Amino acid sequence: MKIASLALTLLPLAAYAETTPPPPPAPLVPSFTEQTATAGVNHIYAGDWEYMVGGGVSTFDCNADSRPDLIIAGGANPAKLFVNQSENGGDLSFTETPSGLERTDVLGAYPIDIDSDTIPDIVLLRQGENEVMKGLGNCKFERANEAWGFDGGKAWSAAFAATWEKDQSWPTLAIGNYIDVTQDMFPWGSCTDNWLHRPDGQKFAPPTPLKRSFCALSMLFSDWNRSGTPSLRVANDREYYKGGQEQLWHIDPGKEPVLYTEKEGWKRLRIWGMGLASYDLNFDGYPEYFVTSMADNKLQTLTEIPSDGAPKATFKDVAYPKHAIAQRPYTGDDLNPSTGWHAQFEDVNNDGLADLFIAKGNVDAMPDFALKDPNNLLLQRADGTFEESGDRAGVAATGLSRGAALADLNADGLVDLVVVNRREPAQIWRNTTKSPNHWLDLTLTQTAPNTDAIGAWVEVKMPDHIQRREITIGGGQAGGNLGPRHFGLGDLAQAEVRVIWPDGTTGAWEMLNANAAYHLQKP
To answer: Taking phi first (over 0 means left), then psi (-120 to 50 degrees means alpha), and beta for anything else, what does residue 474 get?
Structure first.
């Protein structure tokens, strides 16, 4: 009887061992070296409760030297522009430069070429009046609210996104507003309307309020169903809204904005929505969305894609099965829930798979949430799951982080990192990974309007999948990137690339040699 029992026990285990696939190989853990003390990025995002959100940083090229410069919000301090002086492949080096952007009360800043003169402009999100700042070239800017008919309002603005609607020569700007600052004694439920600034020829029409609005902290125009018309995704902070939820808006040319409904597949979701990031992670041609929150981050993917290519707006959360979780600190002994802010997908180890960085930090000193909350760096494995590596990579800082930016700052083919902290100095890391993996940096350009081809898709062929990336402005936490899009290639010495341009024109596949930066111009 004992022998029979032993046999019965062994058979299922043997069968399990034969059918269970081996785990995927561990991803290459990158190496980051902090260069805050020497890089020249000396800045603090400061202020009291009215600056508890925001703290954005954006990268863009303000002087046409093909190196990303930095604009960093200051809150109660003036915003600052840092011009990139880094040598190719060398240590990171920046110089604080007077620019006309030195406004106080700035929560975030987004670069965008509004007037299609090929010189980046800047939208400043402020506690008070927002400003559009026209780029004059050579890193100089001037206020253009009056010249461009832009109503800056007087709200607490913390979110931004932009798109070009069909047949329009100027962009449509979405501004996300937070709570009513005058209701500081009892702010709950005092969410102010978000605004849609649509063009009227070569200026902006009076803004359209998006009703109802629920204390937005991140917005993103994204073509979630590949229809050719981006929709507006809004992440809302549950801490302050009453009766609210996450939102998805129809923004159809010539029509009033309309919310997606449950009949269209949209499911009610109530979280502390903080930041948005998108990427086609499962190579099906449709973007996934990561939404940061307090203790409950979401990684959303479409539930069903029918054969006719017309999916409903129904998303499911796959954060746990994909191990894309950052609900609690992964270092130290603080077991309280985490607070996530900026999120961004970038391939930090150049293996051809997008990784995920999450900036985290307590709102201030909320006792029910982690006080020492390390930033996350989740590496994507070959099977689509993620693995935490922030501590091993050297970026597990525990400041009150808010905004962040990942970009190749010194033209060595490796994505570097900048993080903005509340009431503490901003930090900067150089990616010093030693790896044989290859890469491409791709910058899209087209004739006016929309010179940066916002709304295009870039595709890069890999041996067993196609990397796809949508070109967007928005998302994150009060800042984003305008410029080259980075693709890791693994061991490929060359790769085929094509662009699906914003008007739907599909370019031809082109073979490009690896380890180089290219400008792809629409014919």
So the answer is: left
